[in-house]
Amino acid sequence: MQGIEIVAELARRFAAGDFNSAFELYHPQVRIEQPASLPHGGVHLGRDGVRAMGAKFAKFWTRTISEPTRTACSDGRVLQLTTQTWTGKSTGRSASMDVVELFSFEGNAVSEIRVFQHDTQRLMATLSPADLSEQR
Q1: How many whole angstroms separate alpha carbon 65 and alpha carbon 15?
Q2: Closest by alpha carbon to 40, among 51, 54, 28?
Q3: Cα(5)–Cα(110) distance, rounded to whole angstroms?
Q4: Would you put residue 42 in left (φ > 0), alpha (ψ -120 to 50) or beta?
Q5: So what's the pLDDT on residue 135?
Q6: What is the pLDDT of residues 33-92, one digit of tens each?
Q7: What pLDDT, on a 0 to 100 scale, did the predictor assign at position 136?
Q8: Which residues, in sequence order, are bridge partners of residue 94?
Q9: Cα(97)–Cα(46) distance, integer angstroms
Q10: By three-state DSSP, how is residue 20 classified?
């Protein structure tokens, strides 16, 4: 399977709620890096690290994601662009912005994802003061 097909299948499985099957597309030592300024930010290692990151994200936000644009890079990586709307669970405030993700692969598995949200300050503004103190 090509990288672009792996990313598409990963998204399909997550959208279908087939989380266990989706995690099979991650390399066992997958590395995901999010901006450190976000509550779920930093480097997350392995499938358990990804699960913990997702649980932390879900504590603060819900999210809708637009249909992605994906581009296969000449070095085998895949670039994905989506517009995402994040809504703070405690406030109901929302922010929409572009999110770029850079996927790397080992064999037929995602080995790394680097995530670039356009404006993390706008995302943080959707949270309450209690959320902000809890994240520390």
Answers
A1: 10
A2: 54
A3: 11
A4: left
A5: 65
A6: 999 999 999 999 999 999 999 999 999 999 999 999 999 999 999 999 999 999 999 999
A7: 53
A8: 87
A9: 27
A10: helix
- Grouping H, G, I as helix, E, B as strand and the rest as coil, residue 5 is helix
Right CATH for 3-135 from 3.90.1150.10, 3.10.450.50, 2.160.10.10, 3.40.50.10540: 3.10.450.50
DSSP state of 54: H
The reported pTM is 0.94
- For residue 95, count CB atoms less than 10 angstroms from its CB and return exposed for 0-12, middle for 13-18, buried for 19 or more: buried
Contact predicate 120/131, CB 8 Å? no
Say whether pLDDT at 113 is over 70: yes
Of the candidates 35, 26, 61, 18, the one whose C-alpha atom is nearest the C-alpha of residue 121 is: 35
Three-state DSSP at 3 gives helix
Query: Residue 94 class from Cβ within 10 Å (0-12 exposed, 13-18 middle, 19+ buried)?
Result: middle
- CA dist 103 and 36 (Å) reads 18
